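Hi R.,

Here's the chain you asked about this morning:
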Amino acid sequence: MKILGVTCGRNNSNTEILVKETLMGAEAAGAEVELVRLHDLTIKPCTGCNSCVIDLFEKGGSGHCTISNDDFHFFDEKFLDCDGMVVGSPIYEKSPSGQLKSLNDRMGPSHDMAFQMIARDIRQAKGITKGTGPDPRFFKQRGAVLIGVGGSEWDTLAAPLLHLFVFPMQVEVIDKIIANWVGLPKSVLFREDLITRAHRSGIQLVESLKRGITPADYVGDPGICPLCHSKLVEIREDDKNYPAICGICGVRGTLTVTDGKVKFDIKEEDKHHSHVLLSGKFEHAKELQERSLVPHPNVHEIPERFKRYEKYLTPSKPQKAVLEVK
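And the predicted structure, written out as tokens:
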């Protein structure tokens, strides 16, 4: 069993210390461990070309990203090879590092478990033998520990966005650790509570993977959503308490306050819409196939309609220095 640590904070500082402590716990429980620093990688932003989705939905391919001149495929191989992940990020303006978000954008659609399963089924149904289909390693069960580290309690989006990094791949989250008030380098070394929790979470991750992860293996704060343990809920209409939307899994529920306690109740018929469940992911895939990816009936008008914008404004760019040859 291999556990991959992913950190995008300063080298050898607070985030990396907690990630390493979690990996030490995993190693003590019998796992092989490895660490990747996103600072060491060049991950270019997603271009939104949709080639990965088209490859999956139309060709039964692997969803391979067409950007090849960066380190994304190096990271992808590390992901496919691992059984569990420890993902740690500093908290900048209430959310994880932009490096993690860039990687999330690249992995999101191409690594959606439902999309990969659809591609596998298309390949089998059509007897496709050419090209490369979904990697069999993609479909193994994985677990994760998520760690956000910040200098204050400005952390509202940290846990949700860390969770969004792993949920397309159907990775089960074992623990969400938000470490506040550790803004100075290496100051987490004085927080024995966090060090102990991180080590324990590493052990829990490996033990859960050994027996097969279930929702009961979650050891983090319970949150308010019973499906993904999110504390982030959006109210869509200010005069109604239904539907309230979970900020991570998108499930609809009713937000109420009873005896001074906030509750997020989900009807049984709404649960299958949750994005952390395969049923919700398949529903999303169907919506894309039937709506977003269907050409407009007047698609032939695009060239004429686009003329208004094609030559409007020249984007400003920094001037490149010109070397004077003497």
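The mean pLDDT is 94.

Let me know if you need anything else.
M.
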